[in-house]
Amino acid sequence: MRYSVSQIIKQGLTGNRGWKPVWREPDPKPRYDIVIVGGGGHGIATAYYLAKMHGLTDVAVLEKGWLGSGNIGRNTTIVRSNYLLPGNEPFYELSMKLWEGLEQELNYNVMVSQRGIVNLFHSDPQRDAAVRRGNAMILAGADAVLLDREALRRKCPFLDFDNERFPIKGGLWQPRGGTVRHDAVAWGYARGADRRGVDLIQNCEVTGFDIRDGACRGVETARGTIGAGKVAVCVAGSSSRLMNLAGLRLPIESHVMQACVTEGLKPVIPGVITFGGGHFYISQSDKGGLVFGGDIDGYNSYAQRGNLPTIEDVCEGGMALMPTIGRARVLRMWGGVVDMSMDGSPFIDRTPVEGLYFNGGWNYGGFKAVPAGGYCLAHLIATGAPHPVAAAMRLDRFATGATIDENGAGAQPNLH
Ligand SMILES: Cc1cc2nc3c(=O)[nH]c(=O)nc-3n(C[C@H](O)[C@H](O)[C@H](O)COP(=O)(O)OP(=O)(O)OC[C@H]3O[C@@H](n4cnc5c(N)ncnc54)[C@H](O)[C@@H]3O)c2cc1C
Fold first, then answer.
1. Domain match, 370 and 348 both
2. Which residues contact 6 (CB under 8 A, 6 or more apart)?
3. Is residue 84 part of a domain?
4. Pocket test for ligand 1, best of 220, 235, 283, 406 (most atoms within 8 A of CB)
5. How many angstroms separate the alpha carbon of residue 46 from the centre of ligand 1?
6. How far is the CA of 238 from the centre of ligand 1 (A)?
7. Index of the ligand 1 atom closest to the CA of residue 367
8. Ligand 1 centroid vs 236 CA: distance in angstroms?
9. Within a domain: 95
10. Counting runs of H as helices and runs of E as strands, what totals does the chain give?
11. What domain range includes position 396?
């Protein structure tokens, strides 16, 4: 069923009884050409682009819970392409361009809102770094504007410009950045993949791999063995645990990351703001809640909940940035398990096991990467060659020394 204004009117006048389920609930077949493990953003988008771009429709997505139960439905909805390094920036800019046409492409309202993102700087060296980053973005075809203190004050008068410790000197603004409704992205891609014949199978945890003679021939699941010509793993925070079952050790740690939302307030935050003096970022949802978060919890975990000391640290960042936030009441807080890579950059690659592919290492920021992550993994699976914008996102880059050290944080995920 195509969604349209006339459909809304028709359904509205007939008691909304004609809407169809958004995707089917098929039982798993004994074998597929391609099995994708993980029904999050990257897994479903990969299935969608395999079908749409390459005509490959004998595809199943196996999800252990329900579609969108992982980080795709837990993130703070920020999209941007303000990266620095050539191994990353063209990839994120491709993602941004895909976001810009996504609603029309999917015929689904994912609420793409290009309200802009500003990264603040608080010192001269930070301003120099912002200028460098902005130039790198412009060279990759993205948009970047350097705002001085007064230009920023006109946009965000509520910020504490004269904070004793972190006075605000300006910001790097990406006008095309913004927010997208996170779980709608999973639903929209799921509907698009299902319409093209992809089987989306929920409550189907993958518990092992069928690997013979160095090649992956299928997966063991809670609903039996499923054969496959190729298997792609897109399980974000569960990456290291699951790939361990295939005998692979990844340069990834899993950590909890938390976020909070306040009661609904009148519009105050014009876009997305990230603090440069600590780990804190904030935006305002369409319902008025202030959505904010910060650093990961400081220990490895697979639990989708965190603890209060990190929230205290996040709130301290918020108070330093905009003291008015102290009056807002937090309604909810939650956590997701993020897959922290050791150089702060992701992987889209084949593995040493033939026919087994991997997408992960998304750190704090894999939501914005969903369109390009799915697009590039589908390209790799279908053509056998990496997409040019993801060619550096290799699993062997720590062995070869070709790391994409976006944040210079090395083996300290909390410094990403
Ligand atoms: C609090 C928070 C805030 C964030 N904010 C942002 C942001 O503002 N912007 C941004 O770009 N990114 C953000 N992120 C990161 C982003 O959400 C993730 O990087 C991204 O969603 C990960 O990719 P995914 O959507 O495919 O993962 P997920 O949605 O986690 O998908 C992985 C799926 O795999 C499934 N799975 C796991 N193991 C198995 C198994 N054995 N068998 C079958 N299925 C399995 C899981 O159930 C899950 O559904 C945030 C993350 C968190 C936690």
1. yes
2. none
3. no
4. 235
5. 14
6. 9
7. 11
8. 5
9. no
10. 10, 18
11. 5-77+182-251+343-415
Least Cα distance to 313 among 296, 329, 328 occurs for 296
CATH number of the domain encompassing residue 73: 3.50.50.60
Q: Report the predicted TM-score, pTM, of the whole model to 2 decimal places.
A: 0.97
Instruction: Give the model confidence (pLDDT) of 11-47 as tens digits.
Output: 999 999 999 999 999 999 999 999 999 999 999 999 9
Residue 137 lies in a domain: yes
Exposure string (b/e) for 67-87, b if CB count within 10 Å is 16 or more?
Answer: bbbbbbbbbbbbbbbbbbbeb
Task: Give the containing element (helix H, strand E) for 187.
Answer: helix 182-195
Contact (CB, 8 A) for 254 and 338:
yes
Kindly state whether residues 165 and 281 are assigned to the same domain. yes
By the 8 A CB rule, do 189 and 41 touch? Answer: yes
Q: What is the DSSP string of 253-297?
A: EEEEEEEEEEEE-SS---SEEE-SSSSEEEEE-TTSEEEEEEEEE
CA of 132 to the centre of ligand 1 (A): 30
Q: What is the distance between the alpha carbons of residues 118 and 108, in angstroms, rounded to a whole number?
A: 28
Per-residue pLDDT tens digits for 53-63? 999 999 999 99
With a cut of 70, say whether residue 237 has pLDDT above it: yes
Considering the domain architecture, whether residues 158 and 187 belong to the same structural domain is answered as no
Same domain, 132 and 16: no
Tens-place pLDDT, residues 157-216: 999 999 999 999 999 999 999 999 999 999 999 999 999 999 999 999 999 999 999 999
Is residue 269's pLDDT more than 70? Answer: yes
Asked if residue 258 and residue 334 are part of one domain, the reply reads yes
Average pLDDT on 236-260 reads 97
The total number of structural domains in the chain stands at 2
Greatest alpha-carbon pair distance for the chain in Å reads 65
Q: Are residues 261 and 238 in the same domain?
A: no
Pair type for strands 280-284 and 224-233: unpaired
Residues 45, 60, single domain; the answer is yes
CATH of the domain at 314: 3.30.9.10
Task: Quote the pLDDT of residue 410.
Answer: 72
Cα torsion angle, 80, 82, 84, 90, sign: positive
Which ligand 1 atom is nearest residue 69's CA? 49
Same domain, 247 and 259: no
Domain boundary among 341, 359, 391: 341
Q: What angle do CA 238, 368, 313 make, to 5 degrees?
A: 70
